[in-house]
Amino acid sequence: MFVMLSSGHRPRYRQDVLRSLALPVGAELDFRYDQKWIVPAVKDKLPNKVPDNSDCLIIYIDQSDKAKKPEFIPCRFAKLKSANKHGTTATLSMIMKEFGYAENLAGFNEEIMAACGNQLPAWQKDGSISGAYWLEVNDVLQNVIRTSDIGNWERLISQLSEYNDFEDEHVFYMIKELRELGNNKVIEMFDGSYSIESGKSYEMAIYHYHTKSEPSTRYINLSATEGLTLNNPTLVVDSRYDLKRILISSESTYNHARAILSVYIGKEPNSLERKEFDLPYRIRGSWKKIVGSTLLIGILLAIPQIIAVNSNPQIQNPNHIALIISILGISAGYAIVRGLKSPL
To answer: How far is it, in rounded angstroms, from Cα 6 to Cα 17?
Structure first.
């Protein structure tokens, strides 16, 4: 299993930890590392010898205090989608799986240090830190569990809130689920994207939680590209915990389409102050509408020609010609329908 460490040393690293806790199962998250922070056994495998679909564990490393050893808090399990080298750096894409929760953090820290040996980051005498942030362990880690339970997610948030890197964080949240309105069907994200039907309405549930009794008011602001319509794109976070819902409607279209829903956190409504992540959507065209409209247009195109053929006594085999006209009319109707952006 690969171990992916992220700290609070830079805002982007800290955001990676928060994103790993907010994204739904099936979402894609990218990490970036300078190759000097990758353990040699892994670096030598890049890019072609790193097996896709490998298990990963995203861990927050607290290195905010040079007076004590770094501490490790497991956050999220994932599957490796791809990994590549770029000069002196490397990037990897992961598909999010269950949350990782360690009730006994002291036990987990002992276990991860035993599994990784002296390869983990550690403070040096000159005040610098040395070690690897992308490692590989062969041992099964017993002190961390895979969980989808919201209660365990809240406990994980409580653990992170105790560290300096997150003491001023105002919003901890998660994309809980996406449901199709009408039949209440849960839409699972697959390979980094939601797949939804054209011309239907969906409800996305977002759960937020904070350990402080009176967190400062913040806003979860959402925006969408063409193909998706949001009825309430601003969600107010003005309480310690709540479940918010947003109505999403997909455009009625014949053809398959793609759209993106973007999530932001801000101090004001509609603020795009802090970009969180994008949620890609694949919108499936309506085949029933394609077939119905194709037949309708094809028939309307063919009927005048068929009437003209049947009215002309000089034409031999009128039924045969009428069949050819019908086929051509339907073919033309299909071409017209596929060229239309929206249904008739």
So the answer is: 7
Cβ-proximal residues to 300 (8 Å cutoff; 6+ apart), any chain: 329
Specify the pTM. Answer: 0.85
- Residue 41's CB is within 10 A of a number of other CB atoms, namely 11
> Phi and psi (nearest 5°) for 146?
-85, 130
Composition of the chain by helix, strand, coil, percent to 5: 30, 40, 35
Contact 133, 33 (CB under 8 A): yes
- CA gap 247, 225 in Å, rounded: 15
Select the CATH number that applies to the domain covering 173-284 from these four: 3.40.630.190, 3.30.450.40, 3.60.21.10, 2.60.40.10: 2.60.40.10
**Average pLDDT over the chain, rounded to an integer:** 90
What radius of gyration, in Å, describes the C-alpha atoms of the chain?
A: 27
Under DSSP, the state recorded for 151 is H
Tokens of 82: 């791809």
- Please state whether beta strands 71-86 and 55-62 pair in parallel, antiparallel, or not at all (unpaired): antiparallel
Decide the pairing of beta strands 173-180 and 185-186.
antiparallel
Q: Give phi and psi for 249, each to the nearest 5.
A: -115, 135
Phi and psi torsions of 169, nearest 5°: -75, 130
- Say if residues 35 and 89 touch (Cβ distance below 8 Å): yes
Determine the pLDDT at residue 338.
64
Displacement of CA 247 from its chain's centroid (Å): 18
Q: What is the pLDDT of residues 155-185, one digit of tens each?
A: 999 999 999 999 889 899 999 999 999 898 9
* DSSP 8-class letter at 217: P
Query: What is the distance between the alpha carbons of residues 320 and 279, in angstroms, rounded to a whole number?
Result: 53
Residues of the chain with CATH 2.60.40.10: 173-284
